[in-house]
Specification:
With about 90 residues, the chain is mainly α. The chain folds into two domains: about 55 residues, no CATH class; about 30 residues, no CATH class. Helix content is about 55%, strand content about 0%. It is built from four helices and no strands. Helix 1 crosses helix 2 and helix 2 packs across helix 3. The protein is globular, with a radius of gyration of 13 Å. About 20% of the residues are buried.
Length: about 90
């Protein structure tokens, strides 16, 4: 099955987290598996672990304009605290 745009952006985001040394332990291994084989390769426990960690570090909405943050801009939002449109 071909990944959709959201899945591809999520995988790219995981790659950014791995390259910037923001993940460790089981989440690092699960992220690498996801990058290589997609989320469909994860069992339920791995899926829960991965998404619990991502939920902790991701920024769902920009605190200034309240727009949802896409995965493609998530690392920027984590580092700067806003979406790209609301440059600090």
């Amino acid at each position: 099955m071909t990944p959709d745009k959201d899945e591809l952006e999520f995988i790219y985001f995981l790659g950014q987290l791995v390259k910037s040394d923001r993940l460790n332990g089981a989440v690092l291994g699960i992220s690498k598996q996801t990058i290589t084989n997609g989320q469909s390769s994860l069992n339920d426990k791995q899926h829960r672990i991965l998404h619990a960690e991502i939920d902790k570090i991701s920024v769902k909405q920009c605190p200034k304009c309240y727009q949802d943050i896409p995965w493609s801009e998530m690392l920027y939002a984590i580092e700067k605290g806003t979406c790209v449109a609301c440059l600090p």
